[in-house]
Amino acid sequence: MSRPVQYNNFVKFEGIPEGYQGEGFMATSFDKVIGLARKNSIWPLPFATSCCGIEFMATMASHYDLARFGSERVGFSPRQCDLLMVMGTIAKKMGPILKQVYLQMAEPRWVISVGACACSGGIFDTYSVLQGIDQIIPVDVYVPGCPPRPEAILDGFMKIQELVHAEGLRRRHGDRYKELLAGYGIE
Ligand code: SF4
Q: pTM for this one?
């Protein structure tokens, strides 16, 4: 892991990864460099269906400004994005569509479930609403709240960044990850 460098009271730079340094050289491991790059260039795919999506719009706007985290580029093509952000009530009819979007994303991909509805069905304990998106796809970070404030969404996003930074390059090829996907019927 790298330690951030404080430039002044307002600006903080990402530090260099741990490794060996000398006169004119720096050596570290490949996964630390990849983790650093991935963490600071996450491309989110917003899957927003209701009110929590409005909080996401506020998170993207100038006051909270998700672009500060290297995620200015919100994409609506699953093939180009690596973070699926699910925000809002997901009806059971919509479940297969959400799963298809997830499957169309290339590895490595992460999922953040924003708000009570996406996490657990929220107040809609009813026949037509999916009681949590983790019934159909694996979730990496849950953000509670109805709706969560933009600060909470940013906090969840930073948790995702920690996971992305620390993830080993071989994790996606391991048996545990394959078992996790198999549990969702994904090969
Ligand atoms: S968690 Fe609350 S604010 Fe978010 S989509 Fe559900 S009802 Fe709306």
A: 0.91
Q: Does the C-beta of 147 come closer than 6 Å to ligand 1? A: yes
Reported confidence tier of residue 2, pLDDT bands at 50, 70, 90 = low
Region 27-50: mean pLDDT is: 93
Distance (angstroms) between ligand 1 centre and the Cα of 93 equals: 18
Distance, CA 13 to ligand 1 centroid (Å)?
35
Which range marks the domain in which residue 73 is found? 41-167
Ligand 1 pocket, residue 132 CB under 6 Å: no
Residues 6 and 64 in one domain: no
- What value does the mean pLDDT of the chain take? 92
Residue whose CA is closest, atom 6 of ligand 1?
A: 117
Q: How many residues does the chain have?
A: 187
Shared domain for 55 and 129, answered yes or no, is: yes
Q: How far is CA 123 from CA 92, 117, 175, in A?
A: 15, 7, 36
Choice from 89, 114, 129 to test ligand 1 binding pocket (greatest atom count within 8 A of CB): 89
State whether 153 and 94 are in the same domain. Answer: yes
